[in-house]
Write a structure and sequence with these properties.
The structure is a homodimer of 247-residue chains. Chain A has two domains: 68 residues, Winged helix-like DNA-binding domain superfamily/Winged helix DNA-binding domain (Arc Repressor Mutant, subunit A), CATH 1.10.10.10; 144 residues, GntR ligand-binding domain-like (Four Helix Bundle (Hemerythrin (Met), subunit A)). Helices cover 64% and strands 3% of the residues of chain A. The first copy, chain A, is elongated. Chain A is mostly helical. In chain A, helix 1 crosses helix 3. The C terminus of chain A is likely disordered. The longest helix of chain A is centred in the last third of the chain and has 20 residues. A two-stranded antiparallel ribbon of chain A has the order 1-2. The interface between A and B is large, with 56 and 56 residues. Chain A binds a DNA duplex (30 and 30 nucleotides) through helix 3.
Chain lengths: 247, 247
Amino acid sequence: MWSNHIKYHGLMRTHQLVLRWIEDQLSGGQLAVGGRLPAERTLAEQLGVSRTSVREAIRVLEAMGVVRAGVGSGPEAGTVVISDPTAALGSALRLHVATQHLPVEDVVETRVLLESWAAARARPDAPELDLAGALLDDMDEGHAVDDFLALDVRFHLALADAAGNAVVSAMMGSLREAIQGYAGQLTANLPDWDVTASRLRAEHREILAAIRKDDGGRAAELVAAHIRGYYKEAGLGPKDSDPARLP
Amino acid sequence: MWSNHIKYHGLMRTHQLVLRWIEDQLSGGQLAVGGRLPAERTLAEQLGVSRTSVREAIRVLEAMGVVRAGVGSGPEAGTVVISDPTAALGSALRLHVATQHLPVEDVVETRVLLESWAAARARPDAPELDLAGALLDDMDEGHAVDDFLALDVRFHLALADAAGNAVVSAMMGSLREAIQGYAGQLTANLPDWDVTASRLRAEHREILAAIRKDDGGRAAELVAAHIRGYYKEAGLGPKDSDPARLP
DNA sequence: TAGAGCATGTGGTCCAACCACATCAAGTAC
DNA sequence: GTACTTGATGTGGTTGGACCACATGCTCTA
């Protein structure tokens, strides 16, 4: 039996070598979602590196939403392959928003772009719209602010999913996640939350109705106004002084 | 002087604690792009954790494009804060494409969406267009396939930057990066690279001209056709059987 | 048969040591 | 005086070993 040991990697740091090995396993199909990585100690020995380097690689993959590490024994234990792009993109965006290199206004505008497109593209008979409708019904029964916002997130995600593009869905969710803390603080700026919540509910119903009637153009306009209106009311100033150029 | 030691974090893994501390420093402004983190050993002592945990946190931040670690002494050494959202999003997308949970078709369609929007929104006098023009001139002088594609990437990035939305630029770049390997293989499917390259050059000039004439609508259409056309010629089948619904 | 308790294997954490590298300062040769 | 050599210093990179907490499953016992 030949050895998997990889040497002569002077140009690459050891954990990146492990990373590349795992990525190759994924691309090649030897490793798929639901599958499990070898134990850290085993993998370290197989690749001829230290357990520390293996762990650093796994830490990165975990941050990327590609694996989940669980202690103990049994099916929940070990390092298993998952696929949660939203978590990865969300964390990355949030960090870069924190460094002030991604303006919140740009995040909001990108949300408008992606969600408008999703609303315009969603099929009236998409099954995700049923979930959106159910979430909408839940929102009617007087919730606390946090609960309402949680349902709101799921409603918007359901709409995005209805467009059938996994990348757009993931990016949409990550954008929302990246400014979640920011949006939460904004609610404090609102003059009257109950009034705002009522308006949001009404707008949600309009959006869903437009999609159901296959009026994608109107749905897109409504979504854009819905998102921009909320952040504007909460005090987020527009970055662009020429709104006429907005699509 | 009080201690920075953080204890009683039973619910959180140690490296996540370090991660949170650094993110707080970024949000609070104590750390900004260009700044340097304390040395690993120092930070470990300050937070009362092992150097291992500090290193795992730094590895994650590095993968997120938030810091860059350099050995040795001097200005290039140490762990300094940077901001490269594209790298982070690109790696994450590439990995999830590898797990087959993000279809390449969806990546391409999202590129069409973002780049069309950018082309429609770009101002005719945006300085980034000058760079795009210069790159276009470079492309004329017979290059190898790889060189041409490298210039092509920079041209498209320049166009995206001209729209003035950092989030869209970052996402655009990451999408391109995520399928870079895939796109490279596709060139082998082309019947005649020189013919294709000529067509791409002509389309680039048309796109740039449309933006310069402030005809955003036409620019968006040209970009969409440009991207879809390339991948279609190279053999990437459309995922949706109803192209009439495309925006 | 039902329960308690141990064996096993997983990731989580820490420590101590060593290496490679880049800079800078002190010393040395000319 | 100038130019070169040489060592000290401080950085991240890597390793091996040790121990812990946890979850499961087997085995022994009452």
